[in-house]
Write a structure and sequence with these properties.
globular, outer membrane lipoprotein receptor (LolB), chain A
Length: about 210
């Protein structure tokens, strides 16, 4: 195991880590302006090791009846700025999906709940969005189903947006191809907003000052 990890870390330059100072990101999610759910990420650092735990919970109600529900729980382990393990489980409106990945030699071996196995590059970045290295990637790992996605990233430029309960300046990036959404990162490289269209509705993630209660 130690030899595999050493080979992995020697495979190329470490990706940058953009961990928020308070080790937490909490997003309010809206759908066409109405409450849709939340996205909560927590960061745990110990030396060169970093663990990131993310919980996403979304739902749509019509006349007090839940007509759509989505949850995704992801755990990432990073060492010296490189992803060495990831696992997730999702419930996409009743459809259970799982994936896991582990550093193996010069890459990341990924398995999915469909029984699929694939090998990702050592410097792969998952679609948990907190890592600004995603904006420099051409291939990313879908953190829900374990698929590899080819993406094109366009830097739109700085904009004034609302995040953390105030107006701030953040740089907007547009991802297209296997992944279609806009992401905003502040001047420190912290993820502060995202937006995309799903099933004809506009979904927006807005960073709040902190997690409720």
């Amino acid at each position: 195991m130690a030899a595999c990890l050493a080979a992995l870390l020697a495979a190329g330059p470490a990706v940058p880590r953009t961990v928020p100072p308070d080790r937490e990101l909490y997003f309010e999610v809206t759908r066409n302006g109405a409450p849709f759910g939340h996205h909560h990420a927590r960061f745990f650092e110990e030396g060169a090791a970093l663990r990131v735990e993310t919980a996403v919970a979304l739902k749509v109600k019509v006349a007090f009846v839940t007509v759509f529900r989505y949850t995704l729980d992801t755990q990432e382990e990073w060492q010296d700025g490189r992803l060495v393990a990831i696992r997730s489980q999702a419930d996409d409106n009743g459809n259970a999906v799982r994936m896991s990945g582990t550093a193996d030699g010069g890459g990341l071996s990924v398995t999915t709940s469909r029984g699929e196995s694939l090998r990702a590059p050592a410097d792969i970045v998952p679609t948990t969005y907190w890592n600004k290295a995603l904006t420099e990637a051409e291939l990313v790992l879908n953190s829900q189903n374990g698929q590899l996605l080819e993406v094109t990233v366009e830097r739109i430029g700085p904009e004034t947006i609302r995040a953390r309960g105030e107006e701030i300046t953040a740089t907007r990036y547009r991802l297209s191809g296997g992944l279609d959404l806009d992401l905003w990162y502040d001047e420190a490289g912290i993820w502060v907003r995202s937006a995309f269209t799903a099933r004809g509705a506009e979904v927006v993630f807005e960073l709040l000052p902190g997690a409720p209660g």
